[in-house]
Amino acid sequence: MNRHWQKIQAIAQLKLHMIIHNLSISFIPAFSMLMVYLLRLIIHDQSTAADAASAMGGAYLLSFGLLFNTVMGGIMMCSGPLAEEKEKHTLRVLMTASVSGLDFFIGSALPVLVIIEVVNVLMIPIAGVAWSVIPWGSFLLISTICALISMLLGYMTGILSKNQTQAGIVSMPLLFIFTMLPFFRVLNHTLEMLANLTYSGILTRLVDQTLDQGYHWDFQDIAVLLIWLVIGVGLFLYAYRRNGLDSD
Amino acid sequence: MTTTAIQVQHLAKHFKTTSALRDLSFTVHQGEIFGFLGPSGAGKTTTLKILTGQLAPSAGTATVLGHDVTQLTPAIYEHVGIVTHNSGLYDRLSVTANLRFFAKLLGVATTKVTPLLARVGLSEQQQQLAGKLSQGQRQRLILARAVLHAPAVLFLDEPTSGLDPSTALAIHHLIRDLRDQGTAIFLTTHNMTEATKLCDQVALLNDGQIVELGTPQALRLKYNRHQNYRVLFQGETAAQTLSGPAGQTIIAREITAGHIVTIHSGEPTLEDVFLEVTGRNLE
């Protein structure tokens, strides 16, 4: 077996184990699903009738779940473990034990991406939306791109932080902007416009339109996703080149 | 023929206002334990960081296994083992899982893990979480991890610091075995007894400069200017120190008469040598 792949596999297995056994991180996807389920029960109780109401509830709940899982999960499942490796001095051990930066990032990213995508798919029925109405190609592509952008921002945060506490503090504004802005898009037109300029806003647009008249790609969605992907890669590379994986 | 494992020439490291290392030059061969001795702050860890590619030198060159230390790649690190004070462990993994992970990373058969843990005295802690180990047990696990892949070059920063004597002895055996298998070992320590017992060559480091370099025996003999002997005679409870021609005459006479219970040559220890060369203690 190729040595790189062997190392990536070993790191991916380790990261999966560490995510599962770190409650403050594994809590995020679990919490997203639980919250959506509980909110669904509440909304179901309060909506007296109407398919429209349940459709609105479905879109709201699915957006809520996808935002929490993709944005919060993506950022925190990457920044926290990376900062922990730095704090516990295991990252330096890996770097001097024949692991390249690329092996490390691919191995670390794989389990996070798989967790986010699996939970996003499971979120659909939990939010009370039928799998049959989902445009799978667009859904998987957009949610994967959004997850990757969140992960890049998470890694950037992890690189710039010395420990887990600092990573949590630095992540906070990103979490607030990319989770809350699309979430409050319904409050006024300005917020909706701003939300539509964020990658997480495109995720909620996908859900809104899917459950309204059906989702169709438009130039703005593609441009916003690409711009944020470029920004994510750029910020990550900037942090990596400035600090390395583990500056001391 | 001996193969060069580490080659250092005119190495220097300057920080903003201070010179941490000045003009270091030495060579470590395969199958050799090289002791780098000096008090705290002498530059031992800085040298180790440079040689392991974690810190860039300001001047001079250093190679490990023929590769410039500023250009070490993952492929070269596969032949290197490192134990430092801040080498971390995965605290939420068991002792065995920690080693199995590194075995997978380094392409080593995982069947080597259990015998190695026995070798460093961690058999009973195999299933224990690394985060629950005592400091001494952690140090042994870090050492086991560093030697798991039988590296060609092993860097050890105070490897027995804080360990109980029996564990330190077991570690010494392990280090000697690795040396006998051809591993070049770069060992930093301020424990002179350990250095004398283990090292084939030592460099005495003071304020970032090597002040003496050679075998422990050669250095001790070089500074053995006042040849003396500690002698315990029959019927006495304390040994006497005898020196010079007069002392040698007494010793010769008493040995012939069978009156000597114990006799030890009194050449200086490495600590004495360091004190004489630098005017300061190693601690």
UniProtKB/TrEMBL annotation, chain A:
Keyword annotations: Membrane, Transmembrane, Transmembrane helix
Localization, UniProt: Membrane
Keyword Nucleotidyltransferase found: no
Gene Ontology CC: one annotated term: membrane
Top-level taxon: Bacteria
Topology relative to the membrane: Multi-pass membrane protein
UniProt main location, coarse: membrane
Ranges for domain ABC-2 type transporter transmembrane: 16-181
Gene Ontology MF: a single term: ABC-type transporter activity
Membrane found in the keyword field: yes
InterPro entries for the chain: ABC2_TM
Residues that span the membrane, as ranges: 20-39, 59-83, 104-127, 133-155, 167-187, 222-240
Protein name per Swiss-Prot or TrEMBL: ABC-2 type transporter
Organism: Levilactobacillus brevis ATCC 14869 = DSM 20054
From TrEMBL, chain B:
Localization terms from the record: Cell membrane
InterPro entries named in the record: AAA+_ATPase, ABC_transporter-like_ATP-bd, ABC_transporter-like_CS, ABC_transporter_ATP-binding, P-loop_NTPase
GO cellular component: plasma membrane
Residues of the ABC transporter domain: 6-232
Keywords recorded for this protein, A-Z: ATP-binding, Cell membrane, Membrane, Nucleotide-binding, Translocase, Transport
Pfam family name, one: ABC_tran
Protein name: ABC transporter, ATP-binding protein
